[in-house]
Every structure is written in C-alpha cells, then in structure tokens.
Amino acid sequence: MINVATLLYHPLFVVVSTRSVCQRAEMAISMLSLPKPTILPSLRNPQRTPIFLPKCTSSPSTSLPEQTQQDHSPCISHSRRRLLEVAMSLLAFPLFSVSEANATRIEYYATVGEKLCDMNFAKSGLGFCDVLVGTGTQPPRGELINIHYTARFANGIVFDSSYKRGRPLTMRIGVGKVLPGLDQGIMGGGGVPPMLAGGKRKLMIPPLLAYGPEPAGCFSGDCNIPANATLLYDILYLGLYK
To answer: CATH no. for residue 200?
Structure first.
C-alpha cells in the first residue's frame, strides 16, 4: 500500500515552478496502478469524480511577479489535493472487502431457505410450519408490522427478498393490504396460530391465496410471477412498526 506522506513529499513533487509541478503530478498519476475493488450491487453506479489535473500556463517561476505566482497557486493546490485523493483511495481499499463480506451474508439469507419442517395445512389450502416460535406478542389486526422475508417459486427460485434490499418490509396486517396467504399465515385464523414476535415460519401459499389465475409483476409484457403460481415464503416476524 502506498504511503500518503511518501507520495506527497517525494522528490518528484518538489515545487520548482508552476509548470514542473503540473507536469510531474500528471506523470505520477499516470504511473499509479490502482487496484480495482469489487463493488457492491448497491454501489454499481456511484457518482464518480474523474481524476484530472488542470492545465497550467508554462512560465518560469523566477520571471513571474509575486502577484502572478499567487494567481497560479490554485493550480498547484488542486494538483496536490488530487494526489491526496488518489492516495486515500488506496488506503480505503480494505473497506470494500468488509462490505463484500456483509454482502455475502445478506445474499445467504436472501437465497438459502430456513431448515425444513413438516407442513401443516389449513382448510384454506395454506401450508405452514414454525421453524422458531417467537416469544413476543402476536400482530394486532390493522396494525403496521415489520417482517423480513424471502419469497420463492415452487421450484425454489427466489423472486423477492427483503434481505436483498437491506431493510424489513413494513405492512398493515389483517385488512387485505397484502396477499391473503400472508394475512392468514402471519396473523393466524382458520386453524393457523398467530405468529409471535421473533418467530420464523415457512408458508406454502396456493394460487387462490396468492395472485390467482392472473400473472403479476408485469412490465412491458414481461411478468415476474406466472399465473396460478404456488409461492413459498420464509417469514421472520420482527414485531410492530415503530
């Protein structure tokens, strides 16, 4: 890793004249080989500031009046500031590795299902089983609650996940604002016990309690969810929205 102090006070960067500073700064930056970090999906289109140096008027510093030399000082300051930014970007490189590790954990929870459990089926056709029974309160009808979830098709392909977004879903429970299978599977009823805060539950939602005979998530004729799809949900009930 490049040392910032060594880079800034290397003999190449001794200010002899306005022209030499800019030329040598450009040469130094062109010689740097910056590592290319792996960028997180959420950072694939960051606002990048291009590394460049301003063009300076060539004139020996010995022949410039004092006032003229002061007028060119922003060019020198700008060049040194750019070099400092380049060096600091090298120092910050390990941060990408930490973020990449976090992304790997998020991807795991978003794509790997909870451990298997034996499904029970309500009269409505909803399948459910508790991976972990919570110890908190059950969700009151009509209240806003927070959940984490991963949604899959019957073949196991993930089509939606709150983990990938990095935040839980806030939803109003029991008043028809979400899929009927989610309302029944979380709030309970019809032979399904209510979830308790902190609990994890697997749901198998038949088409009649999901999107039915119509495809869903359509854009320009391309639909993410086909008609009559059975959906599998892994639910973590976090509790009431605060």
So the answer is: 3.10.50.40
Q: What is the pTM of this model?
A: 0.55
The DSSP 8-state label assigned to residue 225 in this structure reads E
Question: What span, in angstroms and rounded, lies between the C-alpha atoms of 206 and 226?
Answer: 13
Asked if residue 217 lies in contact with residue 131, where contact means CB atoms within 8 angstroms, the answer is no
- 102: its two tokens: 């976090």
pLDDT band with cut points at 50, 70 and 90 for residue 206: very high
Span 184-206, average pLDDT: 97
- Give the residue numbers spanning the domain of 171: 115-240
Per-residue pLDDT of 170-179, as tens digits, reads: 999 999 999 9
How many angstroms separate the CA atoms of 67 and 225, rounded?
A: 70
Q: Which amino acid is at 81?
A: R
The answer to whether residues 126 and 235 belong to one domain is: yes
Asked if residue 83 lies in contact with residue 12, where contact means CB atoms within 8 angstroms, the answer is no
**Hey, how many other C-beta atoms are within 10 angstroms of the C-beta on 55?**
9
Are 122 and 92 found together in one domain? no
Please say whether the beta carbons of 79 and 53 come within 8 A: yes
Nearest-angstrom CA–CA distance, 219 and 109 = 27
Inter-residue contact 87 to 93 (CB < 8 Å): no
